[in-house]
Design goal:
By secondary structure, this protein is of the alpha/beta class. The protein is built from seven helices and nine strands; from the N terminus they run αββαβααβαβαββββα. α6 packs across α7.
Amino acid sequence: MAPRRLGFWQWLAVVLVKPVLNVWTRRTWRGMEHLRHPGGVIIVPNHIGHADPLVAAHFIHDAGRWPQFLGKASLFRLPVIGWILYRCKQIPVERGTVEAAKSLDKLVAAVRAGGAVVIYPEGTITREPDLWPMRGKTGAARLALATGAPVIPIAMWGPEKMFEPRTSRLSLRPRIPVTVVAGPPVDLSRWADAAPSRIVLEEMTDTIMLRIRDMVAEIRGGTPPPLWERPARTRTRGEAGE
């Protein structure tokens, strides 16, 4: 979506936030061409801190798309804030309720309408001690199966210096270096006609997360570890491909 086509509230968000980020960060952007798909796309970034949604939104907007993030439905019920979120075309998602299935319908509708839907497949800021990606949840895979839309991986490094996720320390130092790289769509073609079984969704999710992990390694250097496992989750199969 070109900036001239933004609604008033979207335009206002850009005017208020983008100048701050232009001063706060020194940006290295790569791979924007992968976001310029003519239809809907599913964007899957790594999640390393509280500031990286702002950085991801900046990158996606600079690529010519309007980012549509998922937000807790409770935020959309807040006075004023919820009203603004709706008008900025963000997407409410119910979690842990019987309404959760309806959230997928909203995401499918947004993608089919040509939106650039942003899903953090890890579901939260990574718990891996060195901020490497951890094993993801299956929401992005479900949406990919339901829509057939390309899944565009994004790797970021640097936003964790803006707002340190472990200590919650905010740094207002100007021109913090941040790097954001978008890659070509993840190849999920082997599952194109598959039913969304647990095994299929987990295999797709691991494929997505391994791509993101390897892209993060290209930015920050070093040898990436296996995808970090949430301690509370018990897996029933091997970690193929790690």
